[in-house]
Specification:
mainly alpha
Length: 417
């Protein structure tokens, strides 16, 4: 998870490659699979042979299939796409054939009686009625292709597999977890989205079906009447960013250290290469910014306790909205204090940073590394942004709670009048 937050650019690059590879393969497999599925329902003598060949291809081990493509198409994207198309064909062909065969013969006979041609019957009657089953096949094929495409990196096709293989070769568990998590999220997302398409393609829909947009709208409506959820989400982000995600890498980018693997390792072992807000607060230095960072999590804890109390004694008190607003705004002060310290550290504000002077003293005292008072560069890492977003959500939750109380009061007045 830390790798995703620390290097979102690299993760995004391989995810985009993976999405592109999967989309091209599934589009190709869908077109070819549907055509073959229609063909075998029209020429019954092809039904068995086509499904048998597709089944044999499907039983070939995935790695072997990718390797077999190399003598024909070479290493890279084309080989991976063709291999994924071949793997996806069986499911799509079979579902297309089953969907078309499941159409009621009486409906087809009625269409013929209306004077429709065979092509018109196929396009306007059979395929629309078979769409749910066809889309079910495409959905299963897409989810499978996302998983199989990770192996495509083995033949130079790129994608999330690159990240996983790099992690395995360099023994970087964070890269492996980042790749596995990205692939899992993609597969689950494809499953959810394509299942929605499958439901939407079903004929005779009732009002029970909702699009994803409707679910999102319902979610926003629910949050408007339950602002404590927004506050609790903000608290979770604030505390997670503070305690578990990197805020700053004090001297890791310093020219004297950046290219020195031993120095980097020494910093890592001493706990100064990547520091969270909690690490910064626990520095052995009695300076204002430390005291400021020490109280930051208590603002989140206070907001969480009030939100929990309001939840149990629904709807709670109006005063809780004011407390949320106060706590959320106060949480920005330690964040702003730390931001100013990072600017002082690199000389943007003309003063030396007491915080980075304390970090330097501890590095020099506990390691063999010697660093200067002023680091060359100091970049804010994702943990700081996550905590800032959390504080912002607490403020938004306060506003939503105030708005909810006003709307509730107006609704009561309207009912009384």
């Amino acid at each position: 998870m830390n790798f995703i937050l620390d290097r979102p650019d690299l993760v995004l690059d391989v995810v985009i490659e993976h999405v592109y590879l999967t989309i091209v393969a599934i589009l190709g497999a869908s077109v070819l699979g549907v055509i073959l599925g229609v063909l075998i329902t029209r020429i019954r003598s092809l039904y068995g042979p086509v499904l048998t060949v597709a089944g044999v291809i499907y039983t070939v081990p995935s790695l072997a299939m990718f390797v077999l493509m190399i003598p024909v198409l070479g290493i890279g994207f084309k080989s991976a796409v063709i291999a994924l198309i071949l793997y996806s064909l069986l499911i799509i062909i079979r579902n297309t054939a089953v969907g078309l065969d499941s159409v009621d013969p009486n409906i087809i006979e009625a269409a013929r009686g209306m004077g429709m041609t065979p092509l018109t019957i196929l396009s306007r009657v059979e395929l629309p009625l078979a769409l749910p089953i066809i889309f079910a096949g495409i959905r299963i094929a897409a989810v499978s292709a996302i998983s199989l495409a990770t192996i495509a990196a083995f033949i130079g096709a790129g994608g999330i597999g690159d990240l996983i293989f790099q992690g395995m070769s360099s023994q970087r568990d964070d890269k492996i977890v980042a790749g596995a998590l990205s692939a899992s999220v993609m597969a689950i997302g494809a499953e959810v989205l394509l299942r929605q398409v499958e439901k939407g393609a079903s004929p005779g829909l009732t009002g029970d079906f909702k699009t994803i947009g409707e679910y999102v709208a319902d979610g926003f409506a629910y949050l408007r009447t339950h602002p404590n959820i927004i506050v609790m989400t903000g608290v979770l982000l604030l505390l997670t960013g503070y305690a578990f995600v990197t805020w700053v890498k004090p001297y890791a980018a310093d020219p004297s250290i950046a290219g020195d693997a031993q120095a980097q390792e020494a910093l890592q072992d001493a706990g100064y290469k990547e520091m969270t807000g909690l690490d910064l607060a626990q520095l052995k230095a009695d300076i204002p910014v430390n005291r400021s960072l020490e109280i930051l999590p208590w603002f989140g804890i206070m907001a969480a306790l009030i939100a929990i109390m309001d939840t149990f004694r629904y709807p709670g008190s109006r005063a809780s909205a004011e407390v949320f607003l106060l706590v959320g705004l106060l949480a920005f002060f330690p964040l702003a204090h730390f931001y100013l310290e990072t600017r002082r550290a690199v000389g943007d504000l003309g003063n030396f940073s007491e915080l980075f002077r304390a970090i330097r003293s501890e590095i020099n005292a506990t390691t063999s590394i010697r660093v200067g008072v002023r680091p060359e560069t100091v970049d804010l890492e994702p943990g700081f942004a996550l905590s800032a977003v959390g504080a912002g959500l607490i403020v938004i939750g306060a506003y939503m709670k105030s708005l909810w109380f006003r709307q509730r009061e107006q609704a009561i007045k309207e009912r009384l009048s």
